[in-house]
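Before going further, it is useful to explain how the protein records used in this thesis are read. An example of such a record is reproduced below.

***
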Amino acid sequence: MSEPPVNSVRWLKLTVAYDGTAYAGWQIQPSNPTVQRTLMDAWQAITGEEVTLTASGRTDAGVHALGQVVGLATASELACERLRQGLNAKLPEDIVVTEVTSAPPGFHATHDALLKLYRYRIHNSRVRPLLDRRYRWHLPQELNVAAMREAGAILVGRHDFACFETTGSERSSTVRTLTKVEVGQGGTAGELIDIDVEGDGFLYNMVRGIVGTLYEVGRGAREPSWVAEVLAGRDRKKAGPNAPAHGLVLMRVDYGD
């Protein structure tokens, strides 16, 4: 892809929200629609540039975002607000650029990220949801939220999270720091369960693996203390299943600015 001349580059940071239902994830694929390709096409339509976009993380197929961060270098002189308006005029209804701001030279949305917050949403009721069916995992069996909170607390801190990594994306280290694993409950009958997981980085399918493990505790198949055994064992086969992608939302990415 062509890059703008070095002497005319300015760096930008885009905050992007999207419904991931119709996309095969963030990253470009040869024959499937992706968020990255759709954004690149919209950018080229309003600036004439074919730019390289970096995201804070490569969300999987079906995963949503309210606060995905995208970085790029551009030779365009259009004002940030004009760029935001222009992009949204070209993008489909399931992708929205909520903000365009200047970024420091060399800004990299992936490498410069300090913290990410993911939220996993569950609808815990015998009656399946209608309007939220694409955004919440429906679980009819009543979950023990107190036990899930106890189990989640075990994961907070700096640990080797190899037990939650799905094969397919090799990393130099599987050690990460989680600053928050909180299980909230709301709704008229407590049917809405939100699991917030915040950390300095995440392995492939790590959050979905954590949620599936907490689900095992919540349904009474395991005690909360079992999570410590899973963590120490570093074996993906001994943790819970991956929760479905459609309940996961990238909420926020922090850069310390």
